[in-house]
Design goal:
Subunit structure: Homodimer, forms a heterotetramer with a Cas1 homodimer.
Family: Belongs to the CRISPR-associated endoribonuclease Cas2 protein family.
InterPro entries: CRISPR_associated_Cas2 (IPR021127), Virulence_VapD/CRISPR_Cas2 (IPR019199)
Protein name: CRISPR-associated endoribonuclease Cas2
Number of domains: 1
Number of helices: 4
Helix content: 25-40%
EC number: 3.1.-.-
């Protein structure tokens, strides 16, 4: 890929939704929404998505913001794909979703 056109980035989305009976439906809707946008679960309440370049970040962020739950703590972080690949797993094992998200391929048009 030509460096001037950008490089693959990774959005990491972390959230806590205050889960009382009134918020359970809202939490489920938000989770389904981010999955429908192509996010993969890394671990509980932490999701990631590959994007083609840093210029797509605001567009992707606006899609997430379109259905935010009322009572939640949601954070996002953008890192390069190379930085993301350097995450160290200290204990446990990679989830199936993690393995799938690492295998995502892009077709450059």
């Amino acid at each position: 890929m030509n460096e001037s056109r950008g490089r693959k980035m990774r959005i990491i989305l972390m959230y806590d939704i205050y889960n009382d009976e009134n918020q359970k439906e809202s939490a489920n809707k938000f989770r389904k929404h981010i999955i429908s946008l192509g996010y993969h679960m890394i671990q509980y309440s932490v999701y990631s998505k590959c994007i083609g370049s840093h210029t797509m970040y605001k567009y992707e962020l606006n899609k997430v913001k379109s259905k935010l739950p009322n009572r939640a703590n949601i954070r996002v972080l953008m890192v390069t794909e190379d930085q993301y690949k350097k995450i160290e797993l200290l204990t446990g094992q990679k989830s199936y979703n993690k393995l799938i998200s690492e295998e995502e391929k892009y077709i450059e048009i």
